[in-house]
Amino acid sequence: MKRPIACLLLMVCLFNFTACWNPIGFILHPLGGDHGFQDQNVDPLKDKKKEETKKPVTQAEMDAFVDNAMATMSLEQKAGQLFLAICPEDNPDYYANEFQVGGYILQERDFASNILSETQDVIKTYRSHVKIPMIIAVEEEGGDVVQFSPYKAYCSSPFPSARELLSGGLEAVAEDAVSKAKIIKELGINVNLAPLCDVSAVGSELYDRAAGLDTEGTSSYVAEVVKSYQNNGIDAVLKYFPGYANNMISNQTLSTDTRSLQELEAVDIPIYTAGIDAGARCIMMSHLIVPSLDKNKPVSLSKAAYTYVRQTMGFQGVLITQDLEIEGILTRYNYHRDKIAIDAILAGADMVVTQSTTVAVPGVIAAVKKGTISQERLDASVKRILKWKISLGLIDISVPLV
Hints:
This protein is α/β, with parallel strands linked by helices. It is built from 16 helices and 11 strands. It has one domain: Glycoside hydrolase, family 3, N-terminal domain (TIM Barrel). Helices cover 46% and strands 9% of the residues. The model is unreliable at 1-34 and 36-46 (pLDDT under 50).
C-alpha cells in the first residue's frame, strides 16, 4: 500500500514542478493569443480586489487637488510636465531628474536587450527620479509599427496590424487590444500611441498601418480600441489629427492636404469624434499642412488647428505634438529646437514630443520668465496633464503632489 501512495505523491510533485517552472520565470497570458507574459510574483486576485475597492475620484475632488497642487509647483516642475520626451539612449536617469519631464516614450532599443522584469525595473528607476509621476508611453500599433512584441522575452509573436485583425471582426480587435493592454500595463507603461485614425486608399503610404475601412468602419475600430485599452488600465492616443489619408508621411518634408474643411469633416474628423466619445483623453497633432485650417503652419504648430479641436470639436483632454525632431520641422526653424517647442506650446500643445530636452525645457522656462509664454497658458496645459495622470492612476490625490 505504501508504494502506490509514494508513487502518487511523486507524480503530484513532478506535476507541480513542471506546471510552475519556466526558464525565464513567466507564464503565458491565457488571454490574447499567447502574446504576453505575466510575472509569477503578481497576485492578480489581490490586485483586482485592490482596484475594485479604490474609490473613483470625482471631478470636484480632481479639480480641488489640481488647484492645490498648482500652487505648490515650481516653474521648473510645471515646464517639465509639458515634455513627453523620447527616452534618451544615454543617461536617461539624469535627464529625468534634471528636467523633471512629464513622461518618456520608449522605443524598440529600450526593449531589445532586456527581459520583462528588467524593463519593469528600468521604468521604476526612471520614475524614482521625478517628483511628479511620469507617463511612460510606447508606440505598439501592431504590424509594421511594433517596439517590444518582436522580442520573445515579451511576446511569442509580434502583434498583427489593424487590417489583419479586422478580418476577424471587432471581436478580434477587442481581444488583441485587451492582450496588448495587459502586457503594456504589466511593463509599467500607461499609454499606447495608437490607434491610427486614418482612412487611406489602397497603395497609399499609411494603408498598411490603417484599418483599411471607410469612415464608419474606422470609427467603430477606433472606439473599440479606446474602450478596450481603458477597461484594462491604459490609455490610447488618437493620431495623427486630422489624418494623413493618402498624403505622404515623411521625416524629410511636410505634406500638404488640399482637401476642404467640409471634406475633412465628412471623412476624417468623425473618426476622432468617435474616439473621443469612447473616452479618449489624448490626441496627437500631425505635421500635415492643412490650408483649410491654416495656410502656412503644420497642424502641430498651428493655433488655428488647436483652436478647432478645442472649440469646434469640444475636446478638453491633452493635445500632444507628433515628434518634432524631423527635418521638415527642424529646417523651418534653422534647427532652433527651443523655438520649435515654444511655438508648439503657444499654438496650444499641452505636451511636446522631442528628444531635445536639454535645450527645449530651459527654453520654455526662459520664455515663461520673459512673458513670451504667459503663466495662464502654462498653467492651462499643466492642469490638463495632471488630470490625465490622475485618471491614469499615476497620481494619488490623498497624498500631496510635491
